[in-house]
Write a structure and sequence with these properties.
Elements lengths: L2 H15 L2 H39 L10 H20 L1 H19 L3 H23 L8 H22 L6
């Protein structure tokens, strides 16, 4: 499959997975229960995000700006903060985490496919963050969630080469 075609299909699938379930949430929660729906939807989202990221890596490389060492350091400093936000803040924290994660990766990955990928994810996350803040959502920071975030970051750092084919090390 052509790299741009796969990237387009992965992007369309990821975006559709975040639009269609909103319309089907009530019957899916009825059939699976709230917990079953959240687990299934989370797994589907993670699988589609992984496909989208790996498809961006397989798309033809069109450099827009060169990567510098400081950009990798930026990602390595921003991602632990993003994960801590994600595990401590409910949906608002998750959207803030995605925005920070996407921003750092957008800066560090100056090729066309990754700029499209992380740019769209940043816009999506900022939109979700805005909606969450309008609803009055709040962060719930606890030491256990911070420890979970640090452990999750360490695991993702170690698994990054296996999951994406790219080492996060500067």
């Amino acid at each position: 499959m052509d790299g741009w075609v796969e990237f387009g299909l992965a992007m369309a699938s990821f975006l559709a997975s975040h639009v269609v379930p909103v319309r089907l949430k009530t019957p899916l929660v009825g059939a699976l229960g709230r917990r079953g729906y959240l687990i299934g939807y989370s797994l589907l989202s993670l699988v589609l995000l992984w496909w989208l990221i790996t498809a961006a890596g397989r798309a033809p490389f069109v450099e827009l700006w060169p990567q510098q060492v400081w950009m990798r350091w930026l990602v390595n400093l921003a991602v632990p903060v993003a994960i801590a936000l994600g595990v401590t803040g409910g949906m608002v924290g998750l959207m803030a985490a995605f925005a920070l994660w996407a921003s750092a990766h957008l800066i560090a990955n100056g090729d066309l496919a990754h700029v499209i990928l992380f740019g769209l994810l940043l816009v999506y996350a900022l939109f979700g963050l805005m909606l969450g803040l309008r609803k009055g959502a709040r962060w719930r920071v606890t030491p256990m969630r911070l420890a979970l975030g640090l452990g999750l970051w360490a695991g993702l750092y170690l698994l990054h080469p296996l999951l994406t084919g790219v080492s996060p090390a500067p």
